[in-house]
Specification:
Blueprint: H1 2-23, H2 48-57, H3 60-70, E1 74-78, H4 80-86, H5 104-110, E2 114-120, H6 129-147, E3 153-155, H7 159-167, E4 171-178, H8 187-195, E5 198-202, H9 226-238, E6 241-243, H10 249-258, E7 264-265, H11 282-291, E8 294-297, H12 301-304, H13 310-319, H14 328-339, H15 346-360, E9 365-367, H16 387-396, H17 401-429
Helix pairs in contact: 1-2, 1-3, 2-3, 3-16, 4-6, 8-9, 9-17, 13-14, 15-16
Length: 432
């Protein structure tokens, strides 16, 4: 009898998804237009036994799973390429949670359809050819490992490709450059990396570079300098998205003023709830909304944990006087440990999503997990397989199906679309 119940609960959830898959079956690009632009092939892949257990706890899970696996779930920032290049990590193999947060099998389990894989270049590579070569080496490793599993995952460079490929049931990887210093302050390098597949640039990492100030470094330009503004203009012309995670507040506003296209803040959370320099305040949330961009909420404990309050941040500033905060996380966790503060939870991440949606609007919030780039994730969000719990949590908080589709990935896809449209307009205007 127990086996029959499990089978029935599994079948009830999968049948609607299979119908969605039938609607999306044609492979030609023109057919995609008739399918909702924020949904994919719709297959629910969570094991039937696990579905049954969740349904026993709350019947709302049936709706949550249907929505989650029908959505195009799009993560703005995943650092798995660092493991792939430096640790011999096999993206196509299944790993345990304590080893990593993301691999291809677990992307299927968690319903993650598309993600920007971070091409992260550490500041110690400098700001020249060495940094650019490091980026290219990581890009080559991503290409190699994705190509080895071409039946399941494909590289993409546009929103249209994401929609077309996910409707075929494939996972999609896009590449974003984390650390503007890897551009070597060169428009030519920017254009070359765009041609090689990079689709966003995080203007800084923790280091101020030759054209933009970072949030964890001493200011050098008080925002963007003239070179920075010219690089922003070239990004707009190419269709390269500006990513404003990691930048100083002055750089943030300068970049918004300079950009003609919507931006992403690929992996930051909300400063009103956790007053970290890496988070965005309410004025910044509203500014991103005016720009048409999206703030993608980071899951890192240090950026969503409400116990890391003003008093904790004041102690951090006493321990690290001045603007240079490159070792901020080490000191912050020493304070957290000394005070015996608890870790963050899934509900804390939902609070950040909720706050951003209320302040910026539902069209301007998304997911930017920072999986494999952080060392401490909230209880309940230990790896990519836990993403369905975000959908369930949003449903419980009263979000509609359409609103959830936007948060999970629709908003990010819109920014890609609009960046491409701005580039076409600018190139047409210049006679290219």
């Amino acid at each position: 009898m127990r086996r029959l119940l499990i089978y029935c609960s599994f079948a009830l959830l999968v049948i609607p998804a299979c119908r969605a898959q039938e609607r999306a079956a044609p492979d030609d690009a023109d057919s995609v237009a008739v399918v909702p632009v924020m949904t994919d092939s719709g297959a629910v892949v969570m094991p039937g036994a696990q579905q049954h257990l969740l349904l026993r706890k709350d019947s709302l899970w049936a709706e949550a799973l249907r929505i989650h696996y029908n959505a195009i779930v799009f993560d703005g920032h995943i650092d798995t390429p660092l493991l792939m290049l430096d640790k011999g990590y096999r993206f196509g193999a299944r790993h345990r949670t304590h080893e990593s947060h993301v691999d291809l099998p677990r992307m299927f389990d968690g319903g993650l359809d598309a993600a920007f894989f971070s091409i992260y270049v550490a500041p110690f590579y400098g700001e020249g050819q060495r940094a650019t070569e490091r980026a290219r080496a990581m890009m080559a490793e991503v290409r190699k490992q994705v190509a080895a599993h071409a039946d399941s995952v494909v590289l993409a460079t546009s929103a249209g490709e994401v929609r077309r490929l996910t409707h075929k049931g494939k996972k999609v990887v896009l590449m974003g450059l984390e650390g503007g210093h890897a551009l070597a302050a060169s428009p030519e390098v920017l254009r070359a990396l765009y041609d090689e597949g990079i689709r966003y640039v995080t203007l800084t990492h923790i280091n101020t570079n030759a054209w933009a100030d970072a949030s964890q470094a001493a200011p050098r330009w008080n925002g963007l300098n003239d070179l920075g503004r010219s690089l922003v203009a070239e990004m707009n012309r190419l269709g390269m998205i500006l990513d404003l995670a990691h930048v100083s507040d002055s750089t943030f506003y300068d970049a918004l003023a300079a950009s003609q296209a919507p931006v992403l803040v690929s992996h930051s959370s909300v400063r009103a709830l956790v007053p970290s320099v890496r988070n965005v305040d309410d004025a910044m949330l509203r500014a991103v909304a005016r720009n048409g961009g999206v703030v993608m909420i980071n899951f890192f404990d240090a950026m969503v944990n409400p116990h890391l309050d003003d008093d904790v941040m004041a102690e951090l500033r006493r321990r690290m006087p001045g603007p240079k905060l490159t070792m901020m996380w080490n000191e912050l966790y020493a304070i957290k440990s000394a005070r015996g503060l608890p870790g963050a939870t899934l509900d804390d991440v939902l609070d950040h999503l909720d706050h951003a949606a209320k302040v910026a609007g539902i069209d301007h919030v998304g997911l930017g997990s920072d999986f494999d780039g952080v060392f401490d994730l909230p209880d309940g969000l230990q790896d990519v397989t836990r993403l369905p719990w975000i959908t369930y949590g949003l449903l419980k908080r009263g979000y509609t199906e359409e609103e959830i589709y936007k948060i999970l990935g629709g908003n990010a896809l819109r920014v890609l679309d609009e960046a491409e449209a701005v580039a076409q307009r600018l190139q047409a205007g210049s006679g290219e």
